[in-house]
Structure formats: C-alpha cells, structure tokens
Amino acid sequence: MTTTTPRRARLLFTLAITPLLRWAIAAHSVPDDQPWRTACTCGRPLWASTAAPTGRCTGCGQRTPYTVETATVLAAVALTLTGQSGWTLAAYAWWTATMIVLVFVDLAAMLLPLRISITSTAGFLGLLAVAGDHHAWRRAAVAAVTLAVLLAVLAVLARGQLGWGDVTVAVPLAAALGWNSWRAVYAGMLLGFGSAALAAITLRKIGRLPRGAALPLGPFLIGAALTVVLWP
Questions:
Q1: For residue range 68-113, what is the model confidence (pLDDT) as tens digits?
Q2: 145 within a domain of the structure (yes/no)
Q3: Distance CA 103, CA 34 (A)
C-alpha cells in the first residue's frame, strides 16, 4: 500500500463528514434563548437541506456556501502533515471538527454553545485516554480546568466584556494545547487574545467596528489554538 492511500482515505472521510458539520452549524446558529433549528426557512427538514452533497435545499434551492468544506479539508491536510497517528490523530480530528463548528456558529450568531464545548472536551480526552500517555493526559485536564477557572474569574470582573461562551470554549482549547505542553497553552492564549485585540483596534481605526460593538472572540481563540496545535 502506498503512502498516498491513507491520505486519500482521510480526505474522502473528511468530505463525507462535512454534511454533518453543515447540519451542526445550521442547527446551532440561533440566538441563545431559542431552541435548535430543525427546518430550513422554506419549512423543509434541516437535515435534508444541509446534508445533501451539493449543500442545496431540495425545497427552496438555497445552498450553503462551500466554506465549511474548504475549512475542513485544509484542517485535515494540516493534521496529516503533523505526523500524528492512532488515537492521538483521532482525538485531534474530533477536536478540530468541533472547533470548526464553533467558529462558524460564533461568526453567525455570536454564540459558543456549551453543549458543543462539552462534547468536544469529552471526546478529545476520552480518545486520548486510550492513547496511553497519562502524564500528557493529566496536563491536558489540568490545563483545561485551570484556564476555565481563570477566564471565569475574568468574566465576572469584566462585567459582560467576556462572554461565558468564551469561558467554556477555553476548556477544549486548553485541553488540546495542554496535551502538547504548558508552553503551547501560553502561546495559544496569547496569540488568541492578542490577535482579537489587534483586529478590534484596526477595525475601529478604519471605521468598520462601531464603538461599543464587539467582535466574536471565539474564532480568534480557536484559530490561535489550531495554529499552535497544527504548527507547533
């Protein structure tokens, strides 16, 4: 078997799960006080309108942009290049898929659903528990709890400037970074908050972000964590 065969199989698997990611994004891209979306705007079941290979609703013809597929394929390629394998690769693939969902949901609805963060963390730590590196697993778990507590305190002190969704997403982010090292945790958080602050300042300077408006922090934190994980 050539080395290209496993890579081709991973790519095909990546493309196969993108309908599920599209559905998860569409279902959760609603205000926090509303239930999950279950139907397209035309009334057709949401699964049927998002899970088709074309991403086009069979009722109204509305099509989901291929940005989800693009992000998923790029992430899969980057994961392959890291050289990870076995349960570690499975854990980071699971984590990356859930992070992609969170990024698109936050961009669409300024929301980071707690249920996705919990699912991401549980799956990630569960798969890594099988990997056998108990020292790294404990570091990941401690990093997740520590960062969540620190951000929770900061959220209380900031009085609304830091959302609770940003606090909860810190758990899977810190776990993924902590599996590598404490240095990765520091680098990921510094890069995430730093890039968000820089973007906010720049957008306000050019008049694209009104005073008092906020940027979704999740994509910056997640993007920074992905950068540190995939290109350590």
A1: 888 888 888 888 888 888 899 999 999 999 999 999 999 988 899 9
A2: yes
A3: 19
Q: How far apart are CA 170 and CA 73, in angstroms?
A: 24
CB 14 within 8 A of CB 76: yes
User: Do 105 and 45 have their domain in common?
Assistant: no
Same structural domain for residues 135 and 204? yes
Prediction pTM value:
0.87
Looking up tokens 């997740």 gives 144
- Residue 127: both structure tokens together: 């798969």
> Are the C-beta atoms of 143 and 175 separated by less than 8 Å?
yes
One domain, residues 56 and 109: no
pLDDT of residue 134: 92
Question: Are 199 and 127 members of one domain?
Answer: yes
Domain that holds residue 202: 83-230
Q: How far is CA 145 from CA 121, 152, 168, 191, 194, in A?
A: 11, 10, 10, 20, 22
